[in-house]
Amino acid sequence: MTRQVLAFDFGASSGRAMLGTYDGKTITQNEIHRFANEPVSAAGTLYWDVLRLFHEVKQGLVKASAASFESVGIDTWGVDFGLLDAAGNLMNNPVHYRDARNVGMSETCRQYIDDRAVYEFTGIQAMDINTLYQLLYLVREQSETIERAQTLLMMPDLFTYFLTGTKQSEYTEASTSGLLDVTAKTWSDRLLAAVGIPRRLFTNIVQPGTKAGAIRKDICDELGIAPVPVISVAGHDTQSALAAVPAESDDFLFISCGTWALMGTHCAAADVSEAARSGGFSNEGGFGGISLLTNITGTWLIQECRRFWQLAGESVSYDELDAAAEASRPFACFIDPCSQEFTAPGRMPERIQSFCRKTGQYVPQTKGEIIRCIHESLAFTYRRVKEQIETLTGKTYPCVHMVGGGIKSAILCRMTADACGVPVLAGPVEGAVLGNIGIQMISMGILSDLGQFREIVQNMPGIVRYEHTQAGAYDKAFAQFKGVAAC
User: Fold this and answer.
1) How is 130-156 classified by DSSP, letter by letter?
2) Sign of CA dihedral 191, 197, 203, 209
C-alpha cells in the first residue's frame, strides 16, 4: 500500500509542490506544480509577493487533489516574516531580506547590546538580514507598525497560518531569526528587552514534525479538497535539506547549495565560543540537534550574472555558462563571495570585474571567465570553511555532502572536491523538498524515524561521487585566493 504526502518548498527564486510517495521500500517525488518567486520593488522597498505565493500554494493543492495525500508541509528560506494585527490580518507584504533598509542595522544594534552578548544568547552570526536587525529597524524608524502589530510569523509559519488559522513558530525557522535562546530553545526575553522589541509578537515554539491543524474548511470548500493535516516540518529549507543528507553517521560535513550556500556540520550542542563567533558561524536548530554552519553567498552570483545578460538580450542557459567556464583559463582571478558588494541585485558581472580590478588581478572579460571566477571562488571558500570547522570540532571529515539545486553544476561539485581535497557526494538535488517529505512521513507514522528515512535516501538514485584529482594545483591557487578574500 502506497502512502503519499504533499510538500511545498519555497526557495529564494522559485517554489514547487512535490508529491512524495512511499511504497514500503523507496520514496519517489513527483513535481506537480512549479512557480517563480520573484520579489517586487515598490516605492523604494523590496517585498515578497506573499499573496501571489499563497495563490500558488492553492494551485498546488488543486493539482494534487486527485492523489490521496495524507498531509501537507511547507519549508521556506529563513529570517523573513509577516506581521499580523489584532484581528489576525496581514498588515503588509513581508519585506525582502535584501532590501536596502537592512544595511548597517547590525552595526546600529551595537548601540543597544554587544555582539558577543547577542551571540552568547542566540549563537547566530551577525548579519544585517537577520530578523533581529529587521525588527530593530521597525522599532527605530516605523514604530507605528510595531505598535499595531500583534503577532510575528516567520515565512513558513505564515503560510501554515493562512492554511490552518494556527499561529505557532517552528523551531528551525525561529532559530534563523537571531532572537532565539540557543540553549533554552525559547525566545530570548533578555535580548528582546535590550532592543525594545515587544514580547507579545512571538508565539509558542514547536518542534519540526508538529501537526499545526487541518486545512481550513473555507479553503477546502473553495478548492474541493479534503481537510488533511498541515505539518510544521523543518520550516527552514536548509534544515529540511539536512534531514535528507544520505550520511551514514552523525559526523558529516554538508553544503546546502542554492541561492545561499550554507556549510557546516551536525552537533549535539551549540558552540557559542569566541572562535565560533569570530569565524562567522551560526548554531541553527535542526531536526534533532544543532547545525553549526556559516552562510556563504551561493549560486546567487551566477543567477544575477545570467539575469544581467538576459536583460541585455542574450539568452544563455546555466549549462552553456558552465561549458564556457570549463573552457576558460583556471585560477585567473578570484572574488570574495562573502563581500557586501555582492549582496544587492543588479549588474553583477560589472561588480565582479570591479572587484578584480581593485584587487590588482586579471579582470575577466568573457562570460566563461566570469563564471569560472565565481565557481573557483566558491570552491575555495568551501575549503576555508571546512578547515575552520575541523579546528572548531577537532574532527576531520572524509567527504563533503552537497545537496540542493547548486549540485546541478558538475563543474562546481568537481572544483569543490579538488579544493577541499576530499570526495564530494552530491545529492539529492531536491534535498529540501525530500527532507520535507521525510519529516511529514515520520510525523504521520509512515516512517519510524530519521534513521530509516536516511537509509532510504542512501539507496535512492541520483547520488553522484566526485573524486579530487587536482589537489596539488588547487593547494597552490588557494594561497592566491586567500590574498584577495577577507572572509
Assistant:
1) SHHHHHHHHHHH-HHHHHH--EEEEHH
2) negative
Tell me how far the alpha carbon of residue 381 is from its chain's centroid.
17
Clarify whether 23 is annotated catalytic.
Answer: no
pTM: 0.88
Closest by CA to 92, choosing from 38, 144, 169, is 144
350-404, pLDDT tens digit by residue? 999 999 999 999 999 999 999 999 999 999 999 999 999 999 999 999 999 999 8
Chain centroid to Cα 482, Å, comes to 26
CB atoms near residue 326 (< 10 Å): 15
Is beta strand 253-257 parallel, antiparallel or unpaired with respect to 400-403?
parallel
Note whether 378 and 418 are within 8 A (CB): no
**In the 8-state DSSP scheme, what is residue 280?**
T
Q: Are 422 and 398 in contact (CB under 8 A)?
A: yes
Q: Annotated catalytic residue: which of 237, 322, 336, 418?
A: 237
What residue type is 259 in one-letter code? T
- What's residue 213's pLDDT? 98
Check pLDDT > 90 for residue 235. Answer: yes
Spatial CB neighbours of 191, under 8 Å, sequence gap ≥ 6: 113, 118, 121, 122, 132, 179, 181
Q: Is residue 441 packed enough to be buried (19+ CB in 10 Å), middle (13-18) or exposed (0-12)?
A: buried
Cell of 279: 569565524
From the number of C-beta atoms within 10 Å of its C-beta (0-12, 13-18, 19+), residue 4 rates as buried
Chain center to CA of 392: 23
Distance (Å, rounded) from C-alpha 376 to C-alpha 379? 5
